[in-house]
Design a protein that fits this description.
The protein has 209 residues and is α/β, with parallel strands linked by helices. It contains seven helices and twelve strands.
């Protein structure tokens, strides 16, 4: 894992989102299967038709260690794009995680693998394998355009996408946001009068708190 990715992995998605003014968050329905799942890596994008996961298998063979497989499944929540066997192969190939704007299955077994999976939920129906779909193409996942090589970060709050050419810039802004939040918390913690002043200042200016 390169240094830039490692630094993003240590930051909360909320701070990264704030650094991008909340404009690069995947659909809030896409959440980790386990609260403790956290991931960061480069996007290996996958576009599939509804109900066919052939390109997901192709991506597993093409991925580099640490890549995050990001799947555009057209939001389908009827057929799973992966089960425990497919996710197990991802883990064996040292892939960094899976994100899909659809669903998976074999929830209990996947949780036991402790492999980061972010999805809209689970189903019981499997996908077919007609051999269609594409990898390494621009996709739309969870309402956000994702390009191959973009930086994907996920934690308990959701998933954010950092454009690959803005990584350093967003990292600096996110760290600055965390520092300011910590300073603000220290300033107001346990001080009711200061909190009242803060609320009055923010609401009078019509700004977001």
């Amino acid at each position: 894992m390169d240094n830039l990715i490692q630094q993003f992995r240590n930051l909360p998605t909320t701070a990264i989102s704030d650094a991008m003014e909340g404009l690069s968050n995947l659909d809030s329905a896409i959440k980790p299967l386990k609260e403790e799942f956290r991931m960061a890596g480069r996007a290996l994008t996958v576009q599939i038709p509804v109900g066919d996961n052939s390109a997901v298998l192709k991506a597993i063979g093409e991925a580099k260690p640490g890549d995050i497989i990001v799947v555009d499944s057209k939001g389908d929540t009827y057929r799973a794009i992966a089960g425990d066997f497919v996710v197990g192969m991802m883990q064996t190939m040292e892939i960094g995680g899976l994100v899909v704007d659809g669903v998976i299955r074999d929830l209990e077994a996947i949780k036991q693998l402790n492999f980061p999976v972010f999805s809209k939920g689970t189903t019981v129906a499997s996908s077919g394998k007609a051999g269609v779909g594409e990898t390494y193409v621009p996709i739309s996942c969870g309402g956000v355009t994702v390009y191959p090589g973009d930086i994907i970060i996920g934690d308990i709050d959701g998933v954010v996408v950092v454009p690959k050419d803005k990584g350093e810039e967003i990292l600096v802004k996110a760290k600055d946001k965390i520092m300011k939040d910590e300073q603000r918390a220290e300033k107001y913690a346990g001080k009711p009068d200061e909190i009242r002043k803060y609320i009055a200042m923010m609401t009078n200016k019509g700004l977001r708190i």
